Amino acid sequence: MNNIATKPRTKVRLKTQRPKLHKVILINDDFTPREFVVTVLKAEFRMNEDQAYNVMITAHRRGACVVAVFTKDVAETKATRGTEAGRRKGYPLLFTTEPEE
Ligand code: TYC
Questions:
Q1: 31 to 7, 25, 47, 53: CA distances (angstroms)
Q2: pTM
Q3: How many domains does the chain have?
Q4: Which residue has a Cα nearest atom 5 of ligand 1?
Q5: pLDDT, tens digit, for every residue of 48-83?
Q6: Which domain covers residue 73, as residue numbers?
């Protein structure tokens, strides 16, 4: 076969498939104690005291703070677990998720 006629002219570059990441967002409220928010962040998101305090105080001051990004399933599970931890204590603590751009 004629090599010149059959050789593809464009190289196919396969892009690596990466799952879209989702942000877990901590929402401020007026009722959940600061220390409890820190405890939940440490337990559910494996943060140390300083990391958890900084996320908590940022949400407190600005209204919300991105906690971390995960695949969709993990983000939703962690947000639900964090929200439920507050609910068990009667607090309105809320974690939401949204896809990253
Ligand atoms: N605003 C709360 C308080 O003053 C503390 C708090 C911070 C609650 C962050 C929720 O996502 C939150 N006790």
A1: 68, 18, 22, 17
A2: 0.86
A3: 1
A4: 34
A5: 999 999 999 999 999 999 999 999 999 999 999 999
A6: 26-99
